[in-house]
Amino acid sequence: MGLFDRFKKNKKEYDVTDMQVTDLDRGFVFEYDLKTWEVQEVYKYDWGDHFFSYEYKISSGSETHFLSVEDDDELFVVLSQKSNIRKIGEDLPELLADEKPPKKIEFDDKTFFLEEESPGYFCNLTKSKDTWVELISWTYLNENEDEVIDLEQWGEREFEASVGKIIKPFEISNILPAE
Prior knowledge:
Mean pLDDT: 91
Number of strands: 11
């Protein structure tokens, strides 16, 4: 066995005829909404009790989004974009810093209801598999439960927000691994 054969052995083998959204990794490409997307970065969340979720920074060339994948008895997939938290709610950073998340948020002529508060840890697997950062996440769903607002607190006073929609796993198609 040559030196290069050892490197080939470490590469994951995939059945490209049966790729699922749970197989995504950096460099993978897939189709969604008549566009080809590439996974640029992979993030892992540890919510405790051996429960993990993944998020992928994806690009179509002209757009950048985030694709969250959570497998909790059924697959929960969200396509989102980052948003300015003050556009969602002017006083949200102060409320969250005081540990008083609102029970509902009015945004974009819709009402979103607090679904869950989740403390956890975040790791950017693209950069380092050993660096974990603590966070708190608040998830809000609209009445139809097809749109999502996620609010995250990093440290004492750093907040991020994203707005997205829940999609069906089969809407992600033609998944191909990185070459």
